Amino acid sequence: MSVYNGESYLLGAIESILKQNYSDFEFIIINDGSTDKTQEIIKKYADDDTRVVPITQENIGLTKSLNKGILLSKGKYIARQDADDISYPDRLEKQIK
């Protein structure tokens, strides 16, 4: 997930992924140069959950940020999430099947 100034929706998006029925994943969250409280929110989750991989960078845009996330990923599959998306608890489980 790449996020730029997403503090308004970010908590819900992150929570919806961390509460998935399927829990064996890494959650790469790229802070793409946000100037709001996005970094603080990401840090809180990264401190509490080792699945959260926080990346902070200068703003390079959504497409380049997502490509960077793909390069950094270690998993077999990629599940895309926007900072204002909410995922059902069985989303990853269904996608893996």
Describe this structure in words.
This protein is α/β, with parallel strands linked by helices. The protein has helices at 7-18, 38-48, 62-72, 91-96; strands at 2-3, 27-32, 52-57. A 3-stranded parallel β-sheet has the order 1-2-3. α1 (7-18) links the parallel β1 and β2. It starts with a strand and ends with a helix. The model has no long low-confidence stretch (mean pLDDT 98).
Q: What is the N-to-C order of secondary-structure elements (H for helix, E for strand)?
A: EHEHEHH
Average per-residue pLDDT, rounded, comes to 98
- Strands of the biggest beta sheet: in what spatial order? 1-2-3
Strand content: 5-15%
Share of residues in helices: 40-55%
The assigned structural class equals: alpha/beta
What is the makeup of the main sheet?
3 strands, parallel
| Beta strand count | 3
Shape call: globular
Radius of gyration: 12 Å
Tell me the number of helical segments per DSSP (H or I, 4 or more residues long): 4
Low confidence ranges: none
What is the CA-CA span between the terminal residues? 21 Å
Furnish the topology, listing elements before pairings.
Layout: E1 2-3, H1 7-18, E2 27-32, H2 38-48, E3 52-57, H3 62-72, H4 91-96
Parallel strand pairs: 1-2, 2-3
